[in-house]
Structures are given as structure tokens and as C-alpha cells.
């Protein structure tokens, strides 16, 4: 048997990783500004993370949600504190798509409605309703197609108001900063508009914080810049620093009923230990502040390059829009300078490094970038 060939891959085998670096099987060192797609939040193989997971594995790695889980309660309390939503409740699952699937489902249970509003260029995952709310027909299978999702233009307040009048809206789902869509920051006024329309029509505001959340933007949720609360926040990626884990943070107005949501693996002992280790390191090393500081520095410096068409993003979620003539830069950064970056089509370099990135690493990237664009 061979792996099902669905991923275009770089011809690199990673054998070792530490902090913001990885090493291949030839011993070459790479600077990692991609973090395995925004997953590595506190840095690779952080000693506290490794110890907490190892200690937990030596005690109990897994048991299902049929027994009491003090670790889940500890995680909920710490996440409530760090995210500033202490009166919210936590439901744990295993991936981002699953987090969005559960959020959309919970919204529909809550108000008994079916219509979901999503936005152009959105990416919410590949499970049935999450993919139906994703604006990419190539990954929507016929069985996922549904009239329950309406796509609206990004940032179009009039279209949003009209949709609320036309449909019985169950929920509005929006990334605070679109990732796959090319690093597009939702304006504070647009997020506030969603909040007020959801309040007016008793619809549910779902903040997809899977890529832009968990401190990456310089605030815990990038949606927090708008100064309003969403009803449900969905998380994955950075929450486990590589341990597969998803979560939703649920406003107090939702009433839990036994059996309404559920999963076998979600919230197991090892997953909770991973998520606790991440939050402990984030607090101890003040990584949200670091993301704001180093990200702000990078954005400012990148704006000085006249070859760059636009720099978008917040904190350590940065999109560098390049002209077609510089489409080769991402590959050159990897092959010539051994720097991993992400991309979004067309011609956007996406920086999604660990939140512990240092100024020296940022400068190393800027120097290599400067050589390639000039
Ligand atoms: C904004 C957003 N939502 C949802 C997902 C889906 O997450 P997962 O791949 O863990 O299912 C992603 C993944 O890239 C994402 O960027």
C-alpha cells in the first residue's frame, strides 16, 4: 500500500525540529516561518511541552468522555482566563473542520434554523457543512452541495443586511483574518455589523479563529480587535502545537444537552496535556505580546520594499502580495536560503511562524527576502 497522493510535496524529509528551526535528513537547517501551516505556536519540541506530554503518557494517554476529566476542567479554566472569556464553555474535538462543523450544528440546534452565511474566499475545512461553507467549488463534492449556505461578498454591509431580511439566518461564520483566501483582515466595523445583526435577528456569530486565533494576531482572537464578542469561537492548529486537537468556546446563552455534541477522541488526556502545555508556555513566555511585537516589526519592514504590492495581516499572520514576476520568491527562499514560508494563490507569501519568533529570525528572513526580490 502507498499513501493516497493528494498533497503536492516539497522533496524534503524533516528529521528533527527545535524552536523555529527544523533539520532535514541531510543535516541541513531550515528557518521555519510556516509552522506546518500555522500549527507550531510555541515552537517545535518545546521542553515544557515534551515533558508534560511524556509525563501524561506515562500515566494515562487516553480515555473517552465517559469518565470525569479533571484535565478538561483545568484546560477550560485556563483557556477561559487567557482568552478573556471566562464565562464561556469548552467543547473539545480533533480538528478545525470538526470545530466548525460542531459550531454550525450548535447554532442550528440553538435557533432551529438552517441558513448559514459565509463569505467569498472563505476556508472553513473539509467536512460536510464546513466544506459547504468554504468558497472553493473544487473541494465540494456533490454530496456536500447544499442550499443552506449563502456566500456574500467580503465586507459588504448592504449585502449582509439584505441577506438577513431575505433568509431566516441561523449563523454567520467568518475568519477574523482570511488565511487560505490570501490574508484578508476583516475590518472592525464589519465584525461589529455582524454582531449587531446577529443580535437583532437572534442569529449566531461564529468566529473561525482556527488560523488567525490563539494569539497569532497579537490578541488572543483576532476578532477581539473589533471589541465585540462572538457567540462561538472555533479553534485548532496552534491549540496543540502539533497534537491534533480542535475546540469551540461557547457563550453562556447556549444550553448543553447530553448527547447533542460528541466525539470519541476529543478532549482525551494526552490532548488536554498538550493544550495545557501550550497555554502555560504562552503565558510564561508572553507569546501573544511577542507575536504583536515581532509581527508589527516584520509588517513595517516589509512595507518598505517597493517590489511588494501589498502587505496584509496582523501580528505573526502576514501576507506579502507579490507581482507575477516575483512568483518564484517562495521557492527561492526555501531552496537557496532554507526558509520555509506558506503561500496563498495567486502570488501571496504567507508567514505563519511560531509565536516565539525572535527579531534575529525576522531579520534573517528580511535579508534573504531582500536578496530575492531585488
Ligand atoms: C480558517 C480555517 N478554518 C478551518 C480550517 C480547517 O482545519 P483542519 O485542517 O484542522 O480541519 C483551516 C485549515 O487550514 C483554516 O485555515
TrEMBL record:
Coiled-coil spans in chain: none
CDD domains: OAT_like (cd00610)
Species, as recorded: Chitinophaga terrae (ex Kim and Jung 2007)
Name of this protein: Acetylornithine aminotransferase
PANTHER family: ACETYLORNITHINE AMINOTRANSFERASE, MITOCHONDRIAL, AMINOTRANSFERASE CLASS III
SUPFAM superfamilies per record: PLP-dependent transferases
Keyword presence, Transferase: yes
Entries under InterPro entries matching the protein: Aminotrans_3, Class-III_PLP-dep_AT, PyrdxlP-dep_Trfase, PyrdxlP-dep_Trfase_major, PyrdxlP-dep_Trfase_small
Highest taxon in the source lineage: Bacteria
Keyword Cell cycle annotated: no
Protein family according to the UniProt entry: Belongs to the class-III pyridoxal-phosphate-dependent aminotransferase family.
A Gene Ontology molecular function term of the record: identical protein binding
Cofactor(s), names only, from the UniProt record: pyridoxal 5'-phosphate
UniProtKB keywords: Aminotransferase, Pyridoxal phosphate, Transferase
Amino acid at each position: 500500500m502507498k499513501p493516497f497522493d493528494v498533497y503536492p510535496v516539497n522533496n524534503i524529509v524533516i528529521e528533527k525540529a527545535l524552536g523555529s528551526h527544523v533539520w532535514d535528513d541531510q543535516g541541513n537547517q531550515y528557518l521555519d516561518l510556516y509552522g506546518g501551516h500555522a500549527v507550531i505556536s510555541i515552537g517545535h519540541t518545546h521542553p515544557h511541552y515534551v515533558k508534560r506530554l511524556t509525563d501524561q503518557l506515562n500515566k494515562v494517554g487516553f480515555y473517552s468522555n465517559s469518565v470525569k476529566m479533571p484535565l478538561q476542567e483545568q484546560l477550560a479554566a485556563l483557556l477561559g482566563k487567557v482568552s478573556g472569556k471566562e464565562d464561556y464553555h469548552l467543547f473539545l474535538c480533533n480538528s478545525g473542520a470538526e470545530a466548525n462543523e460542531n459550531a454550525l450544528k450548535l447554532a442550528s440546534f440553538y435557533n432551529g434554523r438552517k441558513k448559514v452565511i459565509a463569505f467569498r474566499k472563505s476556508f472553513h475545512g473539509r467536512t460536510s457543512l464546513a466544506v459547504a461553507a468554504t468558497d472553493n467549488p473544487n473541494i465540494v463534492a456533490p454530496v456536500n452541495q447544499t442550499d443552506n449556505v449563502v456566500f456574500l461578498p467580503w465586507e459588504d454591509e448592504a449585502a449582509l443586511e439584505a441577506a438577513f431580511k431575505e433568509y431566516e439566518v441561523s449563523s454567520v461564520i467568518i475568519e477574523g483574518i482570511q488565511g487560505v483566501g490570501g490574508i484578508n483582515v476583516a475590518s472592525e466595523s464589519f465584525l461589529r455589523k455582524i454582531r449587531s445583526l446577529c443580535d437583532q435577528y437572534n442569529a449566531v456569530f461564529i468566529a473561525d479563529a482556527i488560523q488567525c486565533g490563539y494569539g497569532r494576531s497579537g490578541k488572543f482572537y483576532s476578532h477581539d480587535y473589533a471589541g465585540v464578542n462572538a457567540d462561538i469561537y472555533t479553534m485548532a492548529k496552534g491549540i496543540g502545537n502539533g497534537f491534533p486537537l480542535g475546540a469551540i468556546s461557547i457563550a453562556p446563552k447556549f444550553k448543553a444537552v447530553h448527547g447533542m455534541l460528541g466525539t470519541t477522541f476529543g478532549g482525551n488526556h494526552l490532548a488536554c496535556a498538550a493544550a495545557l502545555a501550550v497555554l502555560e508556555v504562552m503565558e510564561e513566555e508572553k507569546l501573544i505580546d511577542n507575536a504583536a511585537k515581532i509581527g508589527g516589526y516584520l509588517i513595517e519592514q516589509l512595507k518598505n520594499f517597493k517590489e511588494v504590492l501589498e502587505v496584509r495581516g496582523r501580528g505573526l499572520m502576514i501576507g506579502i502580495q507579490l507581482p507575477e514576476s516575483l512568483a518564484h520568491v517562495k521557492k527561492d527562499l526555501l531552496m537557496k536560503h532554507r526558509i520555509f514560508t506558506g503561500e496563498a494563490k495567486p502570488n501571496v507569501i504567507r508567514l505563519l511562524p511560531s509565536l516565539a519568533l525572535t527579531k534575529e529570525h525576522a531579520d534573517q528572513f528580511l535579508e534573504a527576502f531582500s536578496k530575492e526580490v531585488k
